[in-house]
Write a structure and sequence with these properties.
The chain has eight helices and nine strands. By secondary structure, the protein is α/β, with parallel strands linked by helices. Strands 1, 2, 3, 4, 5, 6, 7, 8 and 9 form a nine-stranded mixed β-sheet that branches. A hairpin with a 2-residue loop joins strand 6 and strand 7.
Length: 250
Amino acid sequence: MRVTIITVSLNSAESVEACIRSVIRQTHREIEYISVDGRSEDGTLDVINKYRDHFAARLCEKDDGIYEAMNKGLALAGGELVGFLNSDDVLAADDIIARVVEVVAGGRLDSCYGDIVYVDPTDSGRTIRYWKAGPFDAGNIKKGWMPPHPAFFVRRSIYQRFGGFNLAFPVIADYEIMLRFLYKHRISSSYLPRIILRKSTGGISKPTLPNVIRNNAACHKAWIANGLRPSWKIFARKILSKLIQLRPLP
């Protein structure tokens, strides 16, 4: 199975090389690697160009945010399965993509997801948050559960049928697309009980109180936009689940 991995970057010179190297070390050989850069000005492009022979496509142009950049990557994708690896993230082991393919192909599934850990951006050995996703049950989405999007791999045909990232949700378009795929359209999925990637903390979704309030309001709008009826319990449980994730690795 051919897998497309898309890395979106902007001024990520300090982290993008580790990200790229974690992809090119994968034991699964059928990987189409795509770079989408928003015209970085800090040396990111020099790093990307250093590994240009490992990329199937490289795009460098201004965009209106990370989700528009992700949509640009989707437009270039040719793999049967698609995953995103942002420029400050690294795949947790060299066999991750091979294991994901094994789960998806073996079960003839539409998607697969696993766990992620958030690490200190200045000390990658220090875990800040561990997101243990748990087994798949679409009904749990109405209870506030959702798999971590950075560890979510989906067949390209699903994007073709149900669309890409909705740019009306500039902060939580990843939540909206998983809500649309997993709950509204009930695509099949399975949990791979492995840490898929290590992710640096920070960014637009950093769990500060103002961000939590803003993001939950946006998530409510995502349910309405998909013709779904949300319950206030969804968002209360989402907040609780993030508190539970603030624990050391098992």
